[in-house]
Amino acid sequence: MSLLFWIGFGVMVACVVAGVVLWWPSRRDQQGRIALGQALWTSALVAIVTLAIQARAEHDDRERGKAADRQAFRLSLTLADTLRGADLSGRDLHGFYLGGKDLRAAELVGADLGEANLASARMTDARLTRADLGGAILTCAVLAGGDLSGADLSGVAGTRLRAGQTLLVGARLVKARLSGADLSGAILQRADLTGADLSGADLSYADLSEADLTGAHLAGADLDHATLRGATLPKPRSAIAANSGDATPVGSCR
């Protein structure tokens, strides 16, 4: 709040208090005191309305400033030749278009990437711990060697995602669409894969210890040498086919 606001607020309070004192019935010049009290009450009301209008205007100015800054930031990322090693931790990238961008070794810890377009983005060795990628497009993106521990990837479109050797400890992948994805050697301990589509995915040598695969689609998935200790598997278990040769082809990435 500005100094002018607080000065106005102080004047308003003084008017209210004085108005109450003067308005209160008195034997001496009762009519004059009441009239003056009413005048002060009116002044206080005007001050309240004026302060409310000023506060609203300042709020609108701040919101317009934030929107302008966000748009400028979005444009700068879109036009950047490379974002390799960029520190974007905690930044609001919700809905940004970052398709095909070079984000190798980028710092995206706690970033909001919800519904962002990261198709074919190169994110090898990027850190995305606790990042929000809910609903993001990760088709053909490369996340190999990255750290997404505790990240939220619920509902991502990650067909043919390449995330071999990726850390996904405790990650949320509820209803994630990962058909044909490469998750070989990925660490998915305690990951929530409820309802995820992993048909035709490569999960060989992946660690799925204590992972929740309730309702997951694993037809044609390769689970060769995968660790499933304590994992909650989908029913019927016959839906699991540990042979990538049975998978339905889903195309290839360029």
Return the string of H and E elements.
Answer: HH
Average pLDDT level: 84
Portion in helices: 25-40%
Uncertain regions spanning at least 5 consecutive residues: 241-249
Structural class: mainly alpha
- Bin the strand percentage: under 5%
Total count of helical runs of at least 4 residues: 2
Give the overall shape, derived from the CA principal axes: elongated
In words, what does this structure look like?
The chain is 28% helix and 0% strand. By secondary structure, the chain is an all-alpha fold.
Short descriptors:
0% strand; 254 residues; elongated; 2 helices; mainly alpha; 28% helix
Write the layout of secondary structure elements.
Elements: H1 3-23, H2 30-79
Briefly summarize what is shown.
The chain is mainly α. The chain has helices at 3-23, 30-79.
